[in-house]
């Protein structure tokens, strides 16, 4: 009788203990799931209008800037990168798909991609952080640089025009006319040309501009402008930069210098540039995106620019053109080959 009672009591104790342990296990699992649920993984769509080194560097810098702020690919952020390959219709499709997937943020690189992303995302209030947009106001992406106020912000790659003109004058003391090829559909290019035209007289230059609408226009437009100018200077015009080798091939054949608007163009065959570092620009953009993901109101985050410019000279091109590095540029020039 006593043994039976003891067995019964032991049985009840085991049941109670198992119930308690089962409860603990369930509670711990719920707690773990809750913790896991709190560690949000952000989905970011990156749309880029074309594949060329400047914009690629923006994208690399953007990811690095986010990483520096604790948003690390594969840990708490997933990137979906797509290039429009220079096609506006493709940029529209990319932006629509990002919005349809309800991404947490869209990074748009270059003006056409920024405009299409903004148009697609504005109604669903998905934040758009752009990079390499020279004139966000003209592109209708912001009310002002200080107070964007339209659900988009980012960085501008406005070029240091006066420093560029001073550099060209140092290389070519007798030059009179500077040629500029530009995409007639890109608002950034219109803004940059206006800046060149406003400053050219100060350095005794005349600006000669030739517009293009498509890639097919580039060869004839290059032949046209090379017959009228002493040199060419590039804008951050995506259509022209994407076809840089066509321009360089024709200019080199005539021994006419082509100046770039940033370092990568110089590495790819332009004589020199007094431009910005697109990796740094991308890092700044990534840090802005981090502020948005951390909860700041995108409407109140000012659009940023890079103030410092960087002089880069292609030594091989300089020698091929029979030029020498001006004395006034020696202290600051970074030589590449």
Automatic annotation (TrEMBL):
<dbReference type="InterPro" id="IPR028082">
    <property type="entry name" value="Peripla_BP_I"/>
</dbReference>
<dbReference type="Pfam" id="PF04392">
    <property type="entry name" value="ABC_sub_bind"/>
</dbReference>
<dbReference type="InterPro" id="IPR007487">
    <property type="entry name" value="ABC_transpt-TYRBP-like"/>
</dbReference>
<feature type="signal peptide">
    <location>
        <begin position="1"/>
        <end position="22"/>
    </location>
</feature>
<keyword id="KW-0732">Signal</keyword>
<protein>
    <submittedName>
        <fullName>ABC transporter substrate-binding protein</fullName>
    </submittedName>
</protein>
């Amino acid at each position: 009788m006593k043994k039976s009672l003891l067995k019964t009591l032991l049985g009840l104790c085991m049941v109670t203990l198992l119930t308690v342990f089962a409860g603990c296990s369930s509670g711990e699992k719920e707690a773990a799931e809750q913790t896991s649920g709190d560690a949000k993984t952000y989905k970011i769509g990156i749309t880029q209008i074309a594949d060329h080194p400047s914009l690629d560097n923006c994208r690399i810098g953007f990811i690095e800037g986010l990483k520096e702020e604790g948003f690390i690919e594969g840990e708490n952020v997933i990137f979906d990168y797509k290039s429009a390959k220079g096609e506006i219709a493709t940029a529209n499709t990319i932006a629509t798909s990002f919005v349809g997937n309800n991404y947490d943020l869209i990074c748009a690189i270059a003006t056409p991609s920024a405009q299409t992303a903004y148009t697609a995302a504005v109604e669903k209030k998905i934040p758009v952080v752009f990079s390499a947009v020279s004139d966000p106001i003209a592109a209708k992406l912001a009310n002002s640089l200080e107070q964007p106020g339209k659900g988009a912000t980012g960085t501008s790659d406005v070029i240091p025009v006066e420093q560029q003109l001073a550099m060209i004058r140092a290389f070519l003391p007798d030059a009179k006319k500077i040629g500029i090829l530009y995409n007639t559909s890109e608002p950034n290019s219109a803004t940059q040309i206006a800046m060149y035209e406003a400053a050219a007289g100060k350095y005794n230059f005349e600006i000669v501009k030739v517009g293009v609408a498509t890639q097919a226009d580039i060869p004839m437009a290059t032949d046209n402008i090379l017959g009228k100018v002493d040199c060419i200077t590039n804008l951050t015009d995506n259509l022209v930069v994407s076809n840089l080798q066509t321009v360089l091939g024709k200019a080199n054949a005539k021994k006419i210098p082509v100046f770039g608007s940033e370092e990568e163009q110089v590495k790819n065959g332009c004589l020199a540039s007094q431009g910005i570092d697109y990796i740094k620009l991308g890092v700044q953009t990534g840090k802005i995106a981090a502020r948005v993901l951390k909860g700041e109101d995108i409407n109140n985050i000012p659009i940023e620019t890079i103030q410092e410019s960087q002089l880069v000279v292609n030594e091989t091109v300089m020698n091929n053109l029979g030029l020498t590095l001006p004395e006034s540029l020696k202290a600051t020039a970074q030589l590449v080959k």
